[in-house]
TrEMBL record:
Residues 63-223 form the CP-type G domain. Its EC number is 3.6.1.-. It comes from Gracilibacillus salinarum. It is found in: Cytoplasm. Binds 1 zinc ion per subunit. Zn(2+) binds at residues 247, 252, 254, 260. Its cofactor is Zn(2+). This is Small ribosomal subunit biogenesis GTPase RsgA. It comes from the Bacteria. Belongs to the TRAFAC class YlqF/YawG GTPase family. RsgA subfamily. The gene is rsgA. Its main location: cytoplasm. Monomer. Associates with 30S ribosomal subunit, binds 16S rRNA. GTP binds at residues 112-115, 166-174. Residues 72-221 form the EngC GTPase domain.
Length: 293
């Protein structure tokens, strides 16, 4: 039985890429009874009579999956954050990082609109963002007229399945349209009052870019911690993970526990104060969420 990868899902059809080309498939009949939904990015086994009539028979175990966009087996998330219009929000950035880390997806940080900052503003912003490099994240700084964009992205996107993430209006859709002009994703100007851009994406598709695959959607913009348990949260902060074995108590939450290595590092100025405050806010958010039934 041939194997392939779902690269597009539209109106109940799944388009499976395999060494012989592309086959249009439906899910097998008992998928619905078993509440199994194939996702773009799934590795599948399928049968087909011709290129327009195939059936997905089995889905391989997923490495990870996202709800918005509905996609599986993502290697990396390019988190796009603007430093101006809308202004830089480390709170939103850290929220995206927690969601991505919780799915075991490698984050890559792109900061856009650097050229819109005044000189003094830029040095303050770069100093704060340098912290993210010190804790192991790969960072790229982009201007609104970056001519090296394709080269910068091709270095990171080759041989990987990538998805873009970030709040509305930060330039995700423009980035995608720049690297893959055939996409022609719709963008609107940012509303001055709302500070938001708009996009429309009718389906999810993996588009070939160089030797990688890129999801053709500007990515998840709804942010909540419904799927993240409280004890998992510290594991989504790599600098906390590095120190956790030095805490007095196993399973330390780094909030009020005595002899906490994370709080000691914070006191020494080794952990960014803004980021730790965001962590405390996320702890409260998870504690106060309504129970799921």
């Amino acid at each position: 039985m041939p194997r392939g990868k779902i690269v597009k899902a539209l109106s109940g059809f799944y388009y499976v890429q395999y060494e012989g080309g592309l086959v249009q498939c439906r899910g097998r009949g008992n998928f619905r009874q078993k509440k199994i939904t194939p996702l773009v990015g799934d590795y599948v086994e399928f049968e087909y009579h011709d290129k327009k009539e195939g059936y997905i028979m089995a889905i391989s175990e997923r490495e990870n999956q996202l709800t918005r966009p509905p996609i599986a087996n993502v290697d990396q998330a390019i988190i796009v954050t603007s430093v101006k219009q809308p202004d830089l929000s480390l709170n939103l950035l850290d929220k995206f990082l927690v969601l991505v880390e919780s799915k075991s997806i490698q984050p890559l940080l792109f900061f856009t609109k650097m050229d819109l900052l005044e000189e003094e503003e830029e040095s303050i912003v770069r100093e704060k963002l340098a912290y993210y490099q010190t804790i192991g994240y790969e960072v790229e700084f982009l201007s609104t007229k970056d001519r090296e964009l394709n080269h910068q992205l091709s270095v990171h996107l080759n041989q990987k399945v990538s998805v873009f993430a970030g709040q509305s209006g930060v330039g995700k859709t423009s980035l995608l349209n720049t690297i893959i002009p055939d996409l022609q994703l719709e963008t609107d100007n940012i509303s001055e009052s709302l500070g938001r851009g708009k996009h429309t994406t009718r389906h999810v598709e993996l588009i070939t870019f160089e030797e990688g695959l890129v999801a053709d959607t500007p990515g998840f913009s709804a942010l909540d911690f419904k799927e993240i348990d409280l004890e998992v949260l510290p594991e989504c902060f790599p600098e906390f993970v590095e120190l956790q074995n030095q805490c007095k108590f196993r399973g330390c939450m780094h909030v009020k526990e005595p002899k906490c290595a994370v709080k000691a590092a914070l006191d020494r100025g080794e952990i960014l104060e803004d980021r730790y405050q965001n962590y405390l806010q996320f702890v409260e958010e998870i504690k106060n969420r309504k129970p799921r039934y």
